[in-house]
Prior knowledge:
- This protein has one domain (7-209).
- 71% of the residues lie in helices and 0% in strands.
- The chain contains nine helices and no strands.
- The protein has helices at residues 7-13, 15-42, 47-50, 64-73, 91-119, 126-146, 154-162, 165-188, 192-209.
- The model is unreliable at 1-5 (pLDDT under 50).
Amino acid sequence: MNPYMGLLNLLLSDPLTFVLVSVPLLYSIIIHELAHGWVAYRMGDPTAKLQGRLSLNPLKHLDPIGTLMLFLVGFGWAKPVPVNFENLHDPRRGLIFVSAAGIVANLFLAFTAFLLDHLLSPSPAGILSSILYYLAQINIMLAAFNLIPIPPLDGSKILMGITSARFQYFLVRLEPYGFFIIIGLLYLGALDPLIAFFRWCILMLIRFLLP
């Protein structure tokens, strides 16, 4: 999810900021999906690799509707990387690791942006400082949003890996309606406190790890 206004409005009102936001956002989403596929491949499932999804090429990952929504309302998505969990060496542990991979990738990008900003302090060049700021904030938001335990978000898959078969079944049954539930809750602002809590946890972790 993008914490800023719809990219179309941003392009019309502030083209420079549009570039500074859209490019890091695009590749943060791509790296998030790529991480899922790479971990799945390392754990025994070659599906993403065989379909050419282990690539930084945006055309391999962009979803037309998700991209359009991103430009119009600031909320969008990429095509999910295909994973056959039955191919994984340990399907239950694999479910957790593969699902968490995208979140970990976003955390790594956010941490790297903060670290570079710290190492270049007291004052990196203006344009570089802005890029690092947007890169960090975008990836914190992506990680926090995907931690929400509602299908099909990654948080729900991680939860499935550590809960009972009965609760897993409940989440699987909920998944076809999950997207509409998420959109509705976002519209009502009901997810804002949870996202803010996850953002706070991520920031505390990064501050703890920074030298």
